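queue> pop job 88
queue> type: inverse folding (structure -> sequence)
queue> payload:
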């Protein structure tokens, strides 16, 4: 009788686990440049002087808490989309502590998000990281890839941060979050650094596909370049449509959005799409498990500047050094996976 009971229990548990793994048919994976999420504490290892109570931005507890509240509003709204927000790459965060504060906010605490953070050597002291739902994504490994240039050994920027894991108990997914070098100093002078960043991201993807040509890879981040830029087309070697994708191709669904005039960042009265999400052919053409369906920009009315010269642009935290109390100078981007 005892053996029969144990057998029934084991069968029930197996069925429960299978049901739990298969209950999700969609997943949202996004990226958000949160625009300088700094705490108010001086870190002598970082260039955070502007973001201190006595600094240029008068960065105090009230402003910090407002920033957390604003970001939590955006992320919680993203989490309400069909499929649920499973993973969110982020950039411009000072440290793991600010992310822990973010996921502990009133809006985000019920989501029980966890943090996968990496401390980069960036001179400004900002990092790239991941927020993720541990009930749906289990981390297998992480690895940081620094961007180096032999001709300029003193150049320092954000590392590219790779997180690999299992999505909903069945799919191995590799996610690479980026924040490529900016255009400070001009387009011509700075392009080689973004071109190098593109080549590094491509090398990382190729190393994964050398092991599994059908690997499901997502490359996300603020590339500081539009989808048609040389760094994207030649460095990362992205494809602009899904027709006849080779197994090791990388597809950028943001390219057509940019051609249609859609952007995630406004600069000099024009929209740019600096925030990109690139997917591997293995995710586009998947015959089992999750596959890529579509890419989007997350834009809601509450995130927009309400008046003035920058009306309907992203409601920034600072503009021209003046505190605006907004969200970020970027809109988040996201992709939908389904099975």
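queue> result:
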């Amino acid at each position: 009788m005892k053996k029969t009971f144990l057998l029934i229990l084991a069968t029930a548990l197996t069925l429960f686990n299978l049901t739990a793994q298969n209950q999700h048919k969609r997943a949202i994976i996004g990226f958000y440049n949160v625009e300088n999420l700094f705490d108010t504490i001086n870190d002598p290892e970082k260039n955070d002087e502007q973001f201190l109570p006595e600094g240029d931005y008068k960065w105090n507890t009230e402003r910090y808490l407002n920033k957390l509240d604003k970001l939590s509003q955006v992320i919680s709204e993203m989490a309400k989309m069909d499929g649920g927000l499973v993973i969110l790459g982020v950039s411009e965060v000072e440290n793991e502590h600010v992310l822990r504060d973010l996921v502990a906010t009133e809006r985000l605490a019920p989501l029980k998000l966890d943090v996968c953070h990496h401390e980069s050597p960036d001179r400004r002291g900002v990092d790239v990281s991941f927020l993720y739902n541990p009930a749906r994504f289990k981390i297998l490994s992480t690895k940081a890839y620094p961007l180096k240039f032999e001709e300029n050994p003193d150049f320092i920027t954000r590392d590219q941060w790779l997180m690999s894991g299992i999505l909903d108990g069945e799919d191995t997914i590799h996610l690479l979050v980026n924040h490529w070098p900016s255009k400070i100093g001009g387009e011509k002078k700075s392009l080689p650094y973004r071109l190098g960043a593109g080549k590094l991201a491509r090398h990382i993807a190729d190393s994964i596909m050398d092991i599994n040509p059908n690997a499901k890879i997502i490359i996300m981040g603020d590339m500081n370049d539009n989808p048609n830029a040389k760094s994207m087309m030649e460095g990362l070697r992205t494809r602009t449509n899904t027709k006849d994708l080779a197994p090791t191709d990388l597809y950028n669904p943001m390219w057509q959005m940019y051609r249609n005039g859609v952007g995630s960042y406004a600069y000099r009265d024009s929209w740019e799409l600096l925030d990109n999400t690139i997917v591997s052919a293995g995710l586009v053409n998947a015959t089992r498990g999750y596959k890529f369906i579509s890419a989007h920009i997350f834009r809601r009315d509450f995130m927009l500047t309400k008046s003035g010269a920058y009306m309907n642009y992203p409601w920034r935290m600072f503009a021209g050094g003046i505190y605006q109390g907004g969200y970020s100078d970027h809109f988040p981007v996201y992709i939908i996976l389904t099975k």
